[in-house]
Design a protein that fits this description.
By secondary structure, this protein is α/β, with parallel strands linked by helices. The protein folds into three domains: 314 residues, 2-Layer Sandwich (polyphosphate kinase like), CATH 3.30.1840.10; 162 residues, Endonuclease Chain A (Endonuclease, Chain A); 162 residues, Endonuclease Chain A (Endonuclease, Chain A, 2-Layer Sandwich). Strands 14, 18, 19, 20, 21, 23, 24, 25, 26 and 27 form a ten-stranded mixed β-sheet that branches. Helix 2 packs parallel to helix 4 and helix 13 packs parallel to helix 14.
Length: 712
């Protein structure tokens, strides 16, 4: 118990921290300062976030309890205690979600002529259309089932929306009540668009439309009651890359598979008949605490349809056009440019096109003899996939595809097979480790006769679609030392060929964890010696206890530490005698903060690293990751003078973590501060830079046109 109490003093619970993160997303749905349809989108995101969390984290806790695991977590709580606290938090959060939907968003949508109608509210024309739509599009996809000795309970798919019915045979009015189940077709939108007057958008929930036709599907029965429900199942995706790294956990892998697919949550509409709820609960073997009664549409993630379907630009964020990359006037192309200096891109403020074009040019340029790239996630119609496939026909092309990228397994397998058919050498990385690093390397015979490597290293996936709303950083370079080490990383991924030293790169699981600890300890030494000592680190999550403890020690040595952590943070900032010099902030806004930046003052000789890894056990020990230095003076200045200061100055979308793990908005942190949004500032800065760069570009075009006219 003493050990557990000590943990609780040092660390906040990861589950509590995650729930705090999803609450911050919900705050954006509640914030009237955001455009209405953007608020709907944020609410949908909280729903999909919670779904993933339930089928992975909640399921994982249940599995640990069943396996007899009793070791306390970061916060000193045993799995059973964590599960109880998490379940209570989830019930409270789901209540907040539906209050947001019912009290804030639905009324505002109605004011804007966007109506979600009940069947009784439909006009004659609308109901006629709905009935016709049902006959044409819906009924052919339905399979009504009644549960009896000849028809056992169907295998309800994970997160599939269904209708449960309480039935009684008409010929036996006093006979037993029977349960019926109808699965709502996944192939159809959950919202049926109805005919409406100009300027209005009327919808009916698909499950409500089906409910109006239940009697016709169960002609021999009386429908006593019905309710929509959804079951979330154990996805079995959690242990291999969460905290578990011990031999004991490895031995238990076989036991984990026993619970795969078991139900862990039942969502059902709040007005459901208690008999229906009880029969479903018993069938899915759930406790009462695992039943969630929803005060509105089951599965709020589906309200994203309204955001996508309603074409009302004034109810969304103003469109933003990323700044294009303009090469230097004397450059003959991207490779010539990179021979003179590195290029740093900050997405989505800077266009992602140069990254795509880098790969495309590699495929098309006859001077490029070899291409290598990692792929973790990308878009279904990815131009990079097409370019790499094309490269397989004319040059040595190697791609490391991560087959086990969560929820993208089928897509990645399809890509791998297609590229192999095209002549690309496809590898799947090191056995037992996910390949999460973002690397692309081209080997080119340049015009001066030299063969050089050119590389892209990034913090985000090779996905042009998500690059429009994820903040990430890209480095394009031909730095000989960096590119040579990237080459060695590819050798590790394809041949498991390790070297002792990957510097200046930090490579997980080989050198990264110890390298980060060494950098933090070095900063502590500078602090004790009175030299400049500061750490600024931006990441998605902070979960590794050894890193947290090193940060505590550095703070006690005099190091000022600012952490920008979007999601989970188990560190307790601002604790007297422990972490008074540590501040933790989270920024949740229009764009998903996804970049990882690590700044060390280093006694006045600043060092900056970027990369694909968070300070989490899975990134440091269970994945192939790469963190790389920024060496170009202009790139360093941009990060130090523009990017990091903007995030640290945010008072609009930033929340400050408190010692107990709760968060308060920076604007309410106890002092008057002017409103400042880092993302708005960076968008405005990108637009102003684009305008300034466009002036000489237009002047050059005019000069060339004038020269051409004179020649004519």
């Amino acid at each position: 118990m003493a050990k557990a109490a000590q943990k609780a003093k040092l660390f906040n619970g990861r589950d509590h921290s995650w729930m705090q993160f999803n609450r911050r997303v919900l705050e954006e749905a509640e914030d009237a300062a955001n455009p209405l349809l953007e608020r709907v989108k944020f609410l949908a995101i909280t729903g999909s976030n919670l779904d993933e969390y339930v089928e992975i984290r909640q399921a994982g806790l249940m599995q640990r309890i069943e396996d007899g695991y009793r070791e306390p977590g970061y916060d000193g709580l045993r799995p059973g205690e964590s599960l109880s606290a998490l379940t209570a938090d989830m019930h409270e959060f789901v209540g907040a979600q539906y209050r947001c939907w019912n009290k804030h968003l639905l009324p505002e949508l109605r004011k804007q002529g966007i109506r979600l109608l009940e069947w009784a509210e439909l006009s004659e024309d609308a109901s006629a259309y709905a009935r016709s739509y049902f006959q044409r599009e819906v009924d052919p996809l339905l399979t009504p089932i009644s549960i009896d000795p000849a028809h056992p309970f169907p295998r309800v798919l994970n997160k599939a929306l269904c209708l449960a019915l309480l039935l009684r045979a008409k010929r036996r009015s006093s006979g037993p009540q029977v349960l019926g189940v109808v699965t709502v077709p996944r192939a159809l939108p959950r919202f049926v668009r109805l005919p409406s007057t100009e300027g209005h958008h009327d919808y009916l929930l698909l499950q409500d439309l089906i409910a109006q036709h239940l009697a016709g599907m169960y002609r021999g029965y009386e429908v006593l009651a019905h309710a929509s429900f959804r079951v979330t199942r154990n996805s079995n995706l959690y242990f291999e890359e969460e905290e578990a790294r011990s031999l004991l956990e490895t031995i238990r892998v076989e036991l984990h598979s026993r619970r795969k697919g078991d139900a862990v949550r039942l969502e059902i509409e709040a007005g459901a008949d208690q008999e229906i709820i009880e029969r479903l609960r018993v069938n899915f073997e759930l406790d009462e605490s695992q039943v969630f009664r929803d005060e509105g549409p089951v599965n709020l993630s589906r309200v994203m349809f309204l955001y996508e379907d309603v074409k009302r630009p004034e109810l969304k964020f103003q469109p933003f056009t990323p700044k294009p990359l303009l090469l230097s006037r004397k450059s003959t192309g991207i490779f010539d440019e990179l021979r003179h200096h590195d290029i740093l891109l900050h997405h989505p403020y800077d266009s992602y096109d140069p990254v795509v074009e880098f790969v495309q040019q590699g495929a098309q340029d006859p001077a490029v003899v070899t291409m290598k790239q990692t792929l973790y996630r990308t878009s279904n119609d990815s131009p990079m996939f097409q370019a790499l496939t094309e490269a397989g026909a004319t040059k040595e092309a190697t791609v490391v595809v991560e087959l086990m990228a969560r929820f993208d397994e089928a897509t990645n397998i399809r890509w791998a097979r297609s590229m192999e058919d095209a002549g690309v050498q496809v590898f799947h990385g090191v056995v037992g480790l996910k390949t999460h690093c973002k690397l692309a390397m081209l080997v080119r015979r340049d015009e001066d006769g030299q063969t050089r490597r050119y590389c892209h290293l990034g913090t985000g996936n090779y996905n042009p679609v998500t690059a429009r709303f994820y903040t990430d950083l890209s480095l394009l370079t031909c730095d000989a030392q960096i590119t040579e080490r990237v080459h060695m990383v590819f050798n590790y991924l394809t041949a498991h060929a390790e070297i002792d030293d990957y510097s200046p790169l930090l490579v997980a699981p080989l050198t990264m964890a110890e390298s980060f600890l060494r950098l933090i300890r070095r900063e502590a030494e500078h602090g004790r010696a009175g030299r400049p000592a500061r750490i600024v680190a931006k990441m998605n999550a902070l979960l590794e206890p050894s890193v947290v403890e090193a940060l505590y020690q550095a703070a006690q040595a005099g190091v000022e530490i600012d952490l920008i952590v979007r999601g989970i943070s188990i560190l307790r900032p601002g604790v007297k005698g422990l972490s008074e010099r540590i501040r933790v902030r989270s920024i949740v806004g229009r764009f998903l903060e996804h970049s990882r930046i690590f700044y060390f003052a280093n006694g006045g000789d600043d060092e900056i690293y970027l990369g694909s890894a968070d300070w989490m056990p899975r990134n440091l020990f269970e994945r192939c990751e790469v963190v790389f230095p920024v060496r170009d003076a202009a790139a360093i200045a941009r990060i130090e003078e523009e990017i990091l200061p903007a995030y640290l100055a945010d008072t609009t979308k930033a929340r400050l973590q408190q010692p107990d793990g709760s968060y308060v908005r920076a604007s309410k942190a106890g002092k008057e501060v002017p409103a400042f949004s880092s993302q708005d500032f960076l968008m405005q800065l990108a637009e102003s830079k684009a305008d300034l760069e466009a002036i000489p570009q237009r002047q050059r075009v005019k000069a060339e046109q004038k020269k051409a006219t004179a020649a004519d």
